[in-house]
Design a protein that fits this description.
Diverse_Enzym_Activities; hydrolase; Beta-lactamase; Beta-lactam-related; TAT_signal; EC 3.-.-.-; 34% helix; seven-stranded antiparallel beta sheet
């Protein structure tokens, strides 16, 4: 096990200096991070940032166990469902450009969609998982495993699986359905005229200087410094596979801890979104799940934090960001941990 705390220099937007620690800034956060009892075999990183600048970072274990390559701040991992948050930001940017409306129906942009459903389900229902459209796609995965490696176009997947009867009236229930996000991806492609990864790079990744981020799927370039993920580490057993492109909007982004900090600070405190869009992004749509557009808002000591989590195969991501002022906590893990354990660490750091 390699376990080290270090300061790093990442970029103009995300920089670290030991002087910040020497001044005692965020010392309680540093102590909280240092005090976490990492499980044996932990591979990952824990970081705390303020105003888009990483102040404390602790990395442990290996990005590649077989090659004994240490996990570091330059290591990228897959973000799983934290990708939905970025998808929602792209949608809001298209709203600001007048290309999309949150209160418009699916049929407005996809006239070929099943008529009764397409006219009743609105874009914000898809982005908040309150559409009522049954997730026939995820149900089919069990009996048709080849879907996991399918190169089918998003439009073909939506046409095949989007015709089910509504499970509940739009807005009256909540279902964490992957199909919602395939429909969102098709809408964004239709209104932008670009493939989904291209519109995401143009509207989100590049403006936020997420230089280490990309999409882990067969039709995209390999993400640099991507860590391996493990269902077991002694002996190492890898648990990782490419996710098809039609799920790009729900879980295919990968990036570094610096990318996560740049995203959180830039989305909530930078010029990327107008104030009205930031308000829409943080508006709770389904209180029982603390769910907003593509993520959650979770209270910590009475203050709202964006609470973006994700898992795909053995990758685990938690990006928490304090809305009242720019503080970001990031935990990456590649050893198939329970998400609740990671969440408890983030809560402890946030309260420190």
């Amino acid at each position: 096990m390699i376990d080290r705390r270090s300061f790093l220099v990442s970029s103009a937007a995300v920089a670290v200096g030991s002087a910040a620690s020497a001044r005692g800034i965020g010392g309680g956060k540093a102590d909280a991070i240092a005090g976490i009892a990492l499980p044996a075999g932990f591979n990952g990183i824990i970081a705390y940032a303020r105003n888009g600048r990483i102040e404390h970072v602790r990395s442990a274990g290996f990005a590649d166990v077989e090659e004994r390559q240490p996990f570091s701040a330059a290591t990228a991992i897959r973000w799983g469902s934290a990708s939905k948050w970025l998808t929602s930001v792209a949608a809001l940017r298209l709203v600001e450009m007048g290309r999309l409306r949150l209160d418009a129906s699916i049929a407005t942009y996809l006239p070929q969609f099943r008529a009764d459903t397409g006219n009743r389900v609105l874009v914000h229902h898809l982005l908040s998982n309150t559409s009522g459209i049954p997730d026939l796609l995820s149900r089919q995965l069990a009996s048709e495993p080849d879907l996991r490696t399918s190169t089918a176009a998003t439009a073909d997947i939506v046409a095949r699986f989007g015709g089910g009867d509504l499970a509940f009236q739009p807005g009256d229930g909540w279902d964490y359905a992957a199909l919602n996000w395939a429909i969102v991806a098709q809408i964004l492609e239709r209104v932008s005229g670009e493939a989904f990864p291209a519109v995401m790079r143009r509207l989100v990744l590049r403006p936020l200087a997420m230089s280490g981020a990309g999409f882990v799927q067969s039709d995209q370039r390999m993400v640099p410094n991507l860590a391996a993920a493990y269902g077991a580490v002694a002996p190492p057993v890898r648990k990782m596979a490419t996710v098809p492109a039609f799920l790009a909007a729900s879980g295919n982004v990968a990036g570094t801890v610096g990318d996560a900090v740049r995203a959180a600070h830039g989305i909530f405190h930078g010029p990327l979104l107008k104030p009205a869009s930031r308000t829409e992004l943080a508006k709770v749509r389904w209180p029982a799940q603390e769910y907003v557009l593509g993520g959650r808002i979770h209270p910590v000591v009475g203050e709202p934090w964006a609470w973006e989590t994700g898992k795909v195969q053995a990758y685990r991501t938690h990006i928490a960001h304090r809305l009242a002022r720019s503080e970001t906590i990031v935990v990456f893990n590649t050893t198939d941990m329970e998400q609740s354990q990671i969440g408890s660490w983030v809560e402890t750091i946030a309260r420190a």
